[in-house]
């Protein structure tokens, strides 16, 4: 059994009646004549053979059906891997363990009209042997027992058989008690099977059954419900009384519900109001915490440094920037985009120099390597403007399909590039040289009324959009 | 050099109403403004503002975008409620807000300009003079909004005239966004300062009347349509 996989149990096309015996013989590896003879003999043993034959006829698919269902529902991708994993040379021990457990399972289920065998044949085809063993792939899916359906059917049949045997032996079985209980259990089992996997996990997690202790609670609750039903059904005896009692309880429950409904609604509304109130309270607390952490701290600092105008302006400006970002920007918005990058650079310059740098951006684009160089060059220009210009610095970024342009303007006394000493690399290298290296250009116009630095980076690919263009596209 | 460039004709005795819900800011602003301006009224809410403006009929109203009271419409509600005075009273929006919809909403309601609260007293005085003279006042940031909303490519066909800016208007807007004063713009483009003012007024008109998607979207959000 462990060396050659058992052929799945199917009804053979080569048949006398329904192909049951032929299929069973192929599956068990017995001669077909022996099986047929056994079946005929069993028919005379109180009709057991006929029942067994009928059962298999009904529930075992034909070879064709089997093929089709195998096509529709491919074997779990893990199953072949597991079954092959057991067969490399030198791992005989594992192989035998797997084989042995498979045999035990098959042997254990054989007397019950072999539902286990059938299941193996139906569920996973060639991988059945491996899947049936302890290391089954089914075991990886949480609580789901492999072949739960078949095991349940089997235990039900065993139970039924046990009762029949006991009665035959003269034991008095209280059928009146056992049958309703069995019916309840069977109903619960069927209902459970109707649920799909997702709903089952949902149910289990909602009832808290996936936690330790949860199962006990759930089982205890179920046992009590079932016990209650049993007492009602078997204890009082008469059905009429039971129905009356049921109707009466429903009427009482309905009455209670009607009486309590307004109160319950009010309670519910109060709860909702309290909840929204709490949410608002949380929000207010968050805002208060933010204001405390930022604004109040900064105000305290400003009061302490009131003597130094530069410090006050710097602090106020940094705080304003931070608060603005908090108020008007959605977290994560603009991250990795050019405008945001340039604003950050401008903020750094403001912090470093204490001069106001006003940034106006039109259009936006992701920051490329060239853009990064542009930002660095612009940063240098902003630093120069803030240090030497004296006064507010205006920065304008325009990203169009053709190019990315940045203009940095200050209103200082101006300077002439020719008079800048040769060893000062700020403008020559950090601005002009850097822009040239990255395929852009830099132009510096300075007069007595201020200095204008124009940085231009032609687009290499058209990833840029202005707001207007974006809107045009989405229209 | 800052701020000395624009020299709008000084109109003697401009009568001004300041509308802002922060009393501290109002008094600070009054102290900063040029003494030639006559502050004839103050208001701290939409209802007060509408009443005061109707009462004193000022030349210019310096109007905060965010105001309490009224139907919650803030600055643009003041402007729309004072529609009867639009011929004589001009509105200049003043705001700390960076949000485009705030700015555009007051401009579309009829404000003649927009300036940030961080501007110096001198700059605000200049802006008030300019608005009183019938011109439009664009801060660099407003110019940036306009360029973003209208696009940076010039109009080619005549029939979408309201929805696009002309090449010249684009140049003017770009220079203003770069921090140029009107006079500097005029010098840069070799045109007269009056021409610059004409272009800016034309852009303001387009901003107020255009049905461009971005603008109507903002307007719709603020229930201005």
What would you note in describing this structure?
The complex is a heterodimer of chains A (475) and B (225). Chain A has 475 residues and is of the alpha+beta class. Chain A has a five-stranded mixed β-sheet. In chain A, helix 10 (175-194) packs across helix 12 (214-235), helix 13 packs antiparallel against helix 14 (309-328) and helix 16 packs antiparallel against helix 17. Chain A contains 18 helices and five strands. Chain A has a domain at 337-474: Heat Shock Protein 90 (2-Layer Sandwich). The longest helix of chain A is centred in the middle third of the chain and has 66 residues, at 239-304. In chain A, 64% of the residues lie in helices and 8% in strands. Chain A has helices spanning 20-28, 32-44, 48-59, 63-72, 78-85, 92-109, 115-124, 128-132, 148-168, 175-194, 197-206, 214-235, 239-304, 309-328, 338-353, 369-389, 425-437, 467-474; strands at residues 357-362, 393-399, 403-410, 441-447, 450-458. Chain B has 225 residues and is an alpha/beta fold. Chain B has one domain (15-221): 3-Layer(aba) Sandwich (Rossmann fold). A six-stranded parallel β-sheet of chain B has the order 2-1-3-4-5-6. In chain B, helix 6 crosses helix 7 (167-177). The radius of gyration of chain B is 17 Å and the shape is globular. Chain B starts with 14 loop residues before the first strand and ends with a helix. Classes of the chains: A alpha+beta (475), B alpha/beta (225).
